[in-house]
Amino acid sequence: MTHDLDTLLGTVSARLDCAYLNGGWTPLAAGEALAVVNPTTGHVLTEVRAGTRTDLDRAVAAARSAFASFSTSPVADRLALVERIHDLILERSEALARVLTLEMGATITHARAAHVPLAAAHVKAAADVLRDYDFLTMRGSTAIVREPIGVCALITPWNWPLYQMTAKIAPALAAGCTVVLKPSELSPLSAMMLAQIIHDAGAPAGVFNLVNGTGPEVGTAMAEHPEVDMISITGSNRAGVLVAQAAAPTVKRVTQELGGKSPNVLLPDCDLEAAVPPGVMSAFRNVGQSCSAPTRMIVPRARLAEVEAIARRTVDAIIVGDPGEDATVMGPIANQAQFKRVQAMIAAGVEDGAKLVCGGPGQPEGLDHGFFVKPTVFSEVTSDMRIAVEEIFGPVLAILPYDDVDEAVAIANDTVFGLGGHVQGADLEQARAVARRIRTGQVHINYPQWDAHAPFGGYKRSGNGREYGLFGFEEYLEVKAILGFA
Ligand code: NAD
């Protein structure tokens, strides 16, 4: 089934050369054209117009002037706004899912089942938190007041475009902050559809603004801007560090959700038939382009051969192909730069002497167009190999053997990252104890259901701050103590 891009984009199709500023779409004259490439074909889908520093200044000015009234607006008004955004995302879910498939290659089934509904779930979570939140609590005669921090600059990546945007925008608006968004220049279409949704939901002028553009130009200007109170970035460590450096002179709040190299510890008593297939599929979810993907499977050495056989069988069943087809399990890598990086890292695994269980360099048979890669599993990986150290952001799993549980925990923690973690085991007490010893912001025991309210964020170099639910909401608040209040 083919869908005309203009039909999917709706009113946004005539706005691709615009920024969303102060409540309306404003044509951009000066910025360069940014190509949006369909990763399934490698061909240009369309172009959007990049903003400049001047455009960013206008967006920040609009957000600053809207802040005075929006920050003091009744909770009921903000709640109604956030709830309407939620409903409109669900109403437009099919078009959003189709556009995600076109702009970053998510399979249509995954876009429908995860990208869009989980993005909506962040908005619902923000509404749920706001509904019951106490902005003023007492401690003796002292009042502790929480107030919106101000103008928030939000920078988002291409891997889970819609989801990453709502995880920031929804709590920011719920808290009473005003927003300037710069989505990834590689996946701007879903962002523009979201801007239209926020417009149609009735956001007051200036409360939400979107400027497309590159990291070095618009992203840097956001981080440096003296009228921005907080900047939140999800992306690479490289970009996260540059944002923190650019933000330092103005002492704004910086939250960073960066890379990961998350461990999946299979304890000696775990049922491998239950633990390995979902472990492989979690690592390869979204073609492995998830910051918390469990890409290091840490397994008992005595059971290594069994693990490898189950992993190979799991990978053999993965249908790689056109993400628009319902039967496809894995589409292409989202963009060319990332495709090259994944190929380079697969080559590094081979060079470093890891055992190739399945997959490998090159493209899958019959898929020599676009950015398709072979789902790849390496075994006998050690913590000094590049494939165990660096975030790959592709369907590449490293299996690392251990001799005892202490060694398993040491391997799990032998990384500069600390974002996600998994533990599999029959004895829940032991699994809990191991979960407590893993130094990451989230640990999942035996593949639980996703929880939109569970705080998400990094230890170590995976970032600072937390997103989702109450913790994500409170990132957008300042704390004021008023002594002598009572
Ligand atoms: P990136 O960090 O370059 O891009 C993410 C966002 O940051 C984009 O909006 C980009 O425009 C912006 N950005 C880039 N440089 C900036 C700067 N100097 N100042 C301000 N903003 C800037 O990520 P990428 O190049 O698209 O991907 C590279 C690697 O990043 C991947 O291989 C992966 O390892 C990692 N990554 C992680 C996540 C995550 O969710 N943690 C998401 C995307 C990419």
Which short descriptors sum up this protein?
single chain, 486 residues, alpha/beta, Aldehyde Dehydrogenase, Chain A, domain 1, Aldehyde Dehydrogenase, Chain A, domain 2, 2 domains, seven-stranded mixed beta sheet, six-stranded mixed beta sheet, 16 helices, 40% helix, binds nicotinamide-adenine-dinucleotide
CATH class category name of the largest domain? Alpha Beta
Task: Indicate the low-confidence ranges by residue numbers.
Answer: none
* Outline: globular
Bound molecules: nicotinamide-adenine-dinucleotide
CATH architecture of the largest domain: 3-Layer(aba) Sandwich
According to DSSP, the number of beta strands is 20
Mean of residue pLDDT?
97
Order of adjacent strands in the largest pleated sheet: 14-15-16-13-12-17-18
CATH-derived topology of the largest domain = Aldehyde Dehydrogenase, Chain A, domain 1
Helix content: 40-55%
Q: How far apart are the termini?
A: 66 Å
- Note the main sheet: 7 strands, mixed
Strand content: 15-25%
Structural class: alpha/beta
Superfamily at the CATH H level of the largest domain? Aldehyde Dehydrogenase, Chain A, domain 1
Mind telling me the C-alpha Rg? 23 Å
Helix-strand blueprint:
Layout: H1 5-9, E1 18-21, E2 24-27, E3 33-38, E4 43-49, H2 53-70, H3 75-91, H4 93-104, H5 108-132, E5 136-139, E6 142-148, E7 151-155, H6 161-175, E8 178-182, H7 189-200, E9 208-210, H8 215-224, E10 230-234, H9 237-247, E11 253-257, E12 263-266, H10 272-284, E13 296-300, H11 304-316, H12 336-351, E14 355-358, E15 376-379, H13 386-389, E16 396-402, H14 405-413, E17 422-424, H15 428-437, E18 444-445, E19 463-464, H16 469-474, E20 477-482
Parallel strand pairs: 7-8, 7-10, 8-9, 10-11, 12-13, 12-17, 13-16, 15-16, 17-18
Antiparallel strand pairs: 1-2, 3-4, 5-6, 6-20, 11-19, 14-15
Helix pairs in contact: 3-5, 3-6, 3-7, 4-5, 5-6, 8-9, 10-11
Residues 155-159, 182, 184-185, 214-216, 219-220, 223, 233-236, 239, 242-243, 257-259, 291, 338, 341, 391, 393 line the site of nicotinamide-adenine-dinucleotide.
